[in-house]
Amino acid sequence: MRLGYRSAAGELSERRFDPYGLALRGGGWYVIGWCHLRDGVRSFRLDRVTAVSELTERFERPEGFDALRHLSLSLATLPRRHSAEVLLETDLPTARRYVFESLGTFEPSPGGVLLRIQADDLAWLARELSRLPVRFRIRRPRALRQALRRHAETLLACTSAALDG
Predict the structure, then answer these.
(1) How many helices (H) and strands (E) does the chain have?
(2) Contact residues for 27 (Cβ-Cβ < 8 A; gap 6+)
(3) pLDDT in the model for residue 164
(4) 80-164 — its CATH code?
(5) Who has greater pLDDT, 165 or 113?
(6) Where are the domains of the chain?
């Protein structure tokens, strides 16, 4: 197919594209497949597709391709303002149960599971980490530790206000 697309920055492009599947993540639908312009598997938000036209070429979808898994990994590894590493003191199945897959990548590590995260907002990431039912240690960045401390102080202030009221 030929695909017209408008990027998040508003740039228009056109490319040959072999669609492998659709996936829903975070309230948005994505089409995942082989992008001939970038010579690799790519994901495109459907609400940014500007045009679609059928081509005569045929293609084969890779056997066992998992569109949702690919999309989750793509979103988890998008470059963002901050790169973080958090050691979750648990096993891999438990980490996957409590941490949504597009938050980051998981790697078994001595003492637990290393979660590598890309995030634009450290205060948001601190709130996400605080909801986990497992112990964790922030390896980097130091600014994430400070954001988590500020969040903890806010929570403590809420409990004090509730006791006083």
Answers:
(1) 4, 9
(2) none
(3) 63
(4) 3.30.70
(5) 113
(6) 2-75, 80-164
Q: Which residues pair with 108 in a beta bridge?
A: 113
The residue type of 86 is: V
Among candidates 108, 56, 68, 63, which has minimal Cα distance to 87? Answer: 108
For 52-78, what is each residue's pLDDT tens digit?
A: 999 999 999 999 999 998 998 888 788
The pLDDT value recorded for residue 102 is: 79
H or E segment to which residue 67 belongs:
helix 67-76
Q: How many CA atoms are closer than 13 Å to the CA of 26, on its beta-carbon side?
A: 11
Residue 165, pLDDT above cutoff 60? no
The helix (H) or strand (E) run that includes residue 122 is helix 122-130
Give the C-alpha distances (Å, rounded to integers) separating 2 from 42, 47, 111: 14, 16, 48
> 116-150, pLDDT tens digit by residue?
999 999 999 999 999 999 999 999 999 999 999 99
What's the CA gap between 128 and 133, in Å, rounded?
A: 11
Which two three-digit tokens encode residue 15?
A: 């490319």
Picking from 131, 125, 28, the residue whose alpha carbon sits closest to that of residue 86 is 125
Structure tokens at 115: 């979660």
